[in-house]
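Feature request disguised as a bug: please show the residue count (303) next to Dynein, axonemal, assembly factor 3 in the output. Example input:
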Amino acid sequence: TLLKFKDRDELCRIFKLWAQTSSEHPAPIRISAAWDYRVRQHLGTRYDSRKGCYDWDLTMKLHTKGCGVINKQQYMRWREQGLAFEMREGAYQITNPTLLSSRAFNQRGDRVSIRGYWGDIVSSPYLSFGIESDDESLLKTCNGQHIKTAQDISFANTQRLFQSLSSRRGCLTAPQSDSEAETARPEQKPVSVHDLMRLNGVCVTFLPLDSLHKLPEKQKYSRFFNSIYFSASCVHQLDPVIRQIAAPDAVLVIELAKYILDLSKEQEVGFAEKVAAMALEAGFEPWNQGRSDDVHAVFKLKM
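Example output, currently without the count:
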């Protein structure tokens, strides 16, 4: 790790806080209260008619953007309670401490740290693994309605990812029944979780939050990175200095604003144009073979 001691201490504090949270020692703030605070803050005067707002965001925005597999009941429950994946019958009453964090706000000229939930409350977590699949059976429809929900697809996709990690093979593109999987799987020795976490040839390096513009100062990162990814919330950090740490033929992938539902179509187009201009200024050009679409823009370093 290249984290500073201050960052390491902060991570240790966060991990200890998570470890201390249990049914006997609940989190200092209820996630339901933190969630409701965010919803009230987001909707303002529309809070009393929030269910209509939820339905509009789903029907007129997400569904029109190709996310028709997102189930209305599940989406409405997530928007109201923050509960997206209900995998078992039971009451979900214990706060997940990993969803809570502190954020600094200005109050009467002073910086005040407030602990709460500051993540997404509009687009939904179904977008990550729940709207696409290589298994066509998960995307089938009957009478215009999807047979499977985004929750089902998310479960299947993540399960397949974990299976590929544990077997050290690529993701399966076709579904397999349990009997087929048992036949195809060679006899394996029991493997501990610790062994599964040790990947040959793979190294994850944690960097400080302000490291992006400091990497070019280190010689070992000169023309080092073959792939660079920017989320939509971090595009403002895209700078010409990135060219110094990009390897020859490096690929730059930037998330666009398609699923930021509060933006208009004109703002989405403007965002994409701004991203293209910033990438061009940084020394990258559009890469036609990179499968650019309305979700991601793909660029390649100019030679």
